[in-house]
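Suppose a colleague, Dr. K., hands you the sequence of a protein chain of 332 amino acids and asks what its three-dimensional shape might be. Before reaching for any lab equipment, you can write down a predicted structure in token form. Begin with the sequence itself:
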Amino acid sequence: MSSSSQTPRSSRYAASSTPSTPGQHVERGTPSSSPVKFKKVTTTKEKEVEVVSANDGKTTKKTRQLLSTETVITTEETASPNKRVPGVVIIMDDSSDEDNTPATPVKKKSVPTPNNESALIEDEEPAPMEKIYLPPKPEELVCPPGPGPFYSVTRAQKCGVFNDWVYVKKILRDVDNSIYEGRNTFKEAKAVYKVAYDEGTIMTVPDPDSEFANAPFIMRPIDLSGDDEDDNGPRRYRIKKPTAFAAPDFPTKIYLVDEGEDVSVFWTWHQAAIRTKFVNKTAKKYSSFAPALQKYNKLFKARELIKRPRRGGFFDVPVRGQVVDSPEFTKV
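The predicted structure, expressed as tokens, is then:
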């Protein structure tokens, strides 16, 4: 059975080639209702720079036309260290008129010029970063000793598959919108975990002061590409056709999401929860696949499915350019 109606932002657990920059990173946090807005500002200005002659090594001052590009992340609510917004916290914001903090030394780099000289110019502002904790891969999971049920934990201080309920409650504690699902066998619990891992929506959110804070993580630049293209109009998203779904291989509960960040028919609670919890929506539960698909088909034909992803969230993958119909997705 299909795991989602549209592929979320991918390669979330892939290593980044961009090193982290102290003081300029953000962490995914508990979302709020305010959308994050991205704004790119490009300016050209004259600036006096030091120029080193390649012939005699003498330093002179010359005027250069410098192109400056910066990305500003803003939200409609006032940002503070204790206020988390969708996808990010600790916001880089250059909108303040006053700045009483000490100036940070600016790194300079040597750039060749047409006159065989080297001009020392300021480096561009590094992109804001996000800290992503790495969950264990499905193939790394080992069946714990003892009987079931087995719990697939996919949003907590530590993620994985466990059969100790006392331990599961510990790693779920103090995590908003925690997600877990109990299954009778380790094989089923691992399959649930794998679906979440493959779509990149497992979220490890350890308390900074807890024993789980030393979990492995990577720093990745926040993808701002195209996020400012639709500020003047509605964003368009694809919705999956009913014919694209297939029943799961074993009996299980089925969840229908007809309004949320993504809409579809799912066979794991994680898939339904990750698309509804952060936007205060609910999923409808069915005991089998057929009636859930029948309801989805009815809503699809009536155009009553509502897909509203958070800006910058997992499922914020709008359609760009011309919309082409396909066997799997409907036209927007």
